[in-house]
Design a protein that fits this description.
Two copies of one chain form a homodimer.
Chain A: H1 8-15, H2 19-27, H3 36-49, H4 55-62, E1 67-73, H5 79-94, E2 98-104, H6 110-122, E3 127-138, E4 149-156, E5 162-166, H7 168-181, E6 187-192, H8 197-212, E7 222-225, H9 229-241, E8 248-251, H10 254-266, E9 276-278, H11 284-287, E10 296-297, H12 301-316, H13 322-325, E11 330-332, E12 336-337
Parallel strand pairs in A: 1-2, 1-3, 3-4, 4-5, 5-11, 6-7, 6-8, 8-9
Antiparallel strand pairs in A: 10-12
Helix pairs in contact in A: 1-2, 1-3, 5-12, 7-8, 9-10
Chain A binds a DNA duplex (30 and 30 nucleotides) through residues 7-9, 17-21, 23-24, 27, 29, 32-35, 38, 53-63.
Chain lengths: 347, 347
Amino acid sequence: MSNKNVGIKDVAFAAGVSVTTVSHVLNDVSYARISPETRDKVKSVAEQLGYGPNRLAQALRTQRTGMLGLVSEDIATTPHAGRIILGADEAARARGYNLMIINTSGNASPESREADVEALLERRVDGILYATMYHRHIQVPSNLGGVPAVLVDAVSTGGSVTAVVPDEEGGARAAVGCLLAAGHTRIGFLNNTDDVPATRDRLRGFRATLTEAGLDGGAAPVESEPSEVQGGYEAARRILARPGRPTGLFCYNDRMAMGAYRAAAELGLSIPGDLSVVGFDDQELIAANLHPGLTTVALPHYEMGAWATQNLIDAIEGKADLGLMALRPTVLDCPVVVRDSVAAPPL
Amino acid sequence: MSNKNVGIKDVAFAAGVSVTTVSHVLNDVSYARISPETRDKVKSVAEQLGYGPNRLAQALRTQRTGMLGLVSEDIATTPHAGRIILGADEAARARGYNLMIINTSGNASPESREADVEALLERRVDGILYATMYHRHIQVPSNLGGVPAVLVDAVSTGGSVTAVVPDEEGGARAAVGCLLAAGHTRIGFLNNTDDVPATRDRLRGFRATLTEAGLDGGAAPVESEPSEVQGGYEAARRILARPGRPTGLFCYNDRMAMGAYRAAAELGLSIPGDLSVVGFDDQELIAANLHPGLTTVALPHYEMGAWATQNLIDAIEGKADLGLMALRPTVLDCPVVVRDSVAAPPL
DNA sequence: GTTCTTGTTGCTCAACGGTCTCCCACGTCC
DNA sequence: GGACGTGGGAGACCGTTGAGCAACAAGAAC
């Protein structure tokens, strides 16, 4: 079935030709002039010997490994990393590349991060994907400069590395738009307390969308808590206790929305009858399994992984210029995933 | 900071010695007799040139890549794959190896699976980890035989490949034991309908533990549904409607437990006051975020990944014999993770 | 004093398994 | 009988490793 220890010279010997010829035939070298008979002979012999090229040797000679390094943070703690990996893997395979993955911790030291990149460099990967587990600004390892590189879900503080991030503000706009379209006018936002791009951008999108709809975005109720279930619960309790209680809630993420569900249940508010809720992140385990299903905004992790990989490969193959792209991070859409948590406001 | 294109011969030239000497010094070759001065010279030159070995060339020469292939199913759909990857990555790095990851679909064709393994083989990985996304019996790709291999969360139908799987029955015993210890005597099981090892083994553990506790395990109530939230809900509705309603529920997984929570809420049963619930899988997103927190049984994905990797490396390095280990799959513990969903039964 | 040993220290050279740039041999055609 | 077309081979090279050898100095034997 497979290679093993048969090399190109075994094929050459068995076919009665030189290794050069075998190489030319198997690689379809354009300038090689070889008779059809010889070609067939070589191919069939290679096939039946189960010859498979030794990519190491190829790489050594051609200075191309066909491998992409992916350093990802906290692979196991969120499903996000998995989606990035999947997007990257599929895009890579489609173009004949493979992925070498290295896991790093969100709070790893700069030295350890450099060591991670170094390991990839020693293996002579053709390019590096550097992914964080949530959208943020990072200081890239200094040795990342050696090969083409793309940041996924992160932007470099120096701004000198090509990056792809989600359109946080656009996602927030879509979420609020969803509530607006259902007829809500009293809309609140359960925000995160961390000072990260998502916090700021989603808030901006929230207010702007309301304002553009003729409401007073600046005065719209916002409650902030740590972005976990408990925080969502507490923020929801507070926001729902306000006079002129909101009928629609936009939540920073699905976990906070989960907390809001509980708060609503405790207050005897039914979703979506009395209260409409929109989340963010589309963590399937939560969003799809809550009752009713949570309408939320999806983060394009798969797409970011794929986009980064495609452009990285383009750069490697000289079809694109990462330097140019590094000027502005590329922003990818956050589409709304409609489930059952939004309805018209109560009369 | 780093290598790039500086090779061993650049170091040799700069240090005024031969490449052999550099190689010997840098690899601490035991039988090489080289003066301390020369050693220092070489090391410092290498350091300041930012020399890093070319692992490709090393691998070509030594026939050892220091890379492990990991083919995993559906990386993005469950967090499980992430934990396996993490366990494998950490174990691999601890021993100087790196991981090449290939994603495959749970329902990929045998040909495509062989192609995945083939890709790994072409890159001359030293060994292969083959992981599935849930415990099951599989037909391993026929070309897997070429290198040392270990199955993770799966056993080969032929039984000829070393494998590591969770102790399903033990986990079920622990879960039921937990309920028993809290004083429950009327305990029900919400089982899965799929015919997989987990379904059978957990049921066996459930009944056996009850019987051993002096209860009638054979007659204990069991309701089966697809292992999703909705299935859990329905099975719970049925089991809670039975005469002599159970006060403790063991659920096939956390998703079904989530459904049970809803059923309980609808019936006005409070958890854990009126009903105690134990899940399985420890999907943090669910288990930790449900209210009250779900006591559940953890699947040792991280541990399986690490175990598989350590033993694979041992085999590669000749310190272990996979053939021997293949006789019986290794079974790893499923520990109970205690949260707040179990209490004494109502009076 | 010359030739042997014996130790030191480091170098030479052939792999590893490919790719790729010349180069060659042999027709054939005017 | 030179130019050209056709089919294919030789051999250097990619960056390392490792077995074996070479060079040299110091002490021993004659």
